[in-house]
């Protein structure tokens, strides 16, 4: 089973969109201490590519950042995410924190992905077929796709980082 990651989203108009998303009132289950203002990410997908010449392997175009997609269970932040999509609200800060079990047996944030200048470009809500017994452990899910201006990857534990702002030229 993958280790969890949590996402927090700050909108320029609505403020902290994920405020209270992991509380009992929001999830209907237990709240997660220390993660009350984040959403538990069920699935994540992101792809960055560089077009290349198939014969030589040489770059043939500018890098392409595909939508940053994450899936969460329905919670109190969902209506606010739809508001942000409908209004084209800029998201001033999106932060995805990845966790692992430390050598002391505790959860530690070892990797962080941050987005700047993000906007929601797609939301897909899905409920697995409720009469299919193989779906018993699933719930209603929301997949959110984000476009963004800048992305930063930080390996918190080792202190390494990388970033890409597609509005800036790449320097060697």
Automatic annotation (TrEMBL):
One Pfam family hit = T6SS_HCP
**SUPFAM superfamilies per the record?**
Hcp1-like
Q: Where are the transmembrane segments?
A: none
Domain of life according to the entry = Bacteria
Protein name per its UniProtKB record: Type VI secretion system effector, Hcp1 family
């Amino acid at each position: 089973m993958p280790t969890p990651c949590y996402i927090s989203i700050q909108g320029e108009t609505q403020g902290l969109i994920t405020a209270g998303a992991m509380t009992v009132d929001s999830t209907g289950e237990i709240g997660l201490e220390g993660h009350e203002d984040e959403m538990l990410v069920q699935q994540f997908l992101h792809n960055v590519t560089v077009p290349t010449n198939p014969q030589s392997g040489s770059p043939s175009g500018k890098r392409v950042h595909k939508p940053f997609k994450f899936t969460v269970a329905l919670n109190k932040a969902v209506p606010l995410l739809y508001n942000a999509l409908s209004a084209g609200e800029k998201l001033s800060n999106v932060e995805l924190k990845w966790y692992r079990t430390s050598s002391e047996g505790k959860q530690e944030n070892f990797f962080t992905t941050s987005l700047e200048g993000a906007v929601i470009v797609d939301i897909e809500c899905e409920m697995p077929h409720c009469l299919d017994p193989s779906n018993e452990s699933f719930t209603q899910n929301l997949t959110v796709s984000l476009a963004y201006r800048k992305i930063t990857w930080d390996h918190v534990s080792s202190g390494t980082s990388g970033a890409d702002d597609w509005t800036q030229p790449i320097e060697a």
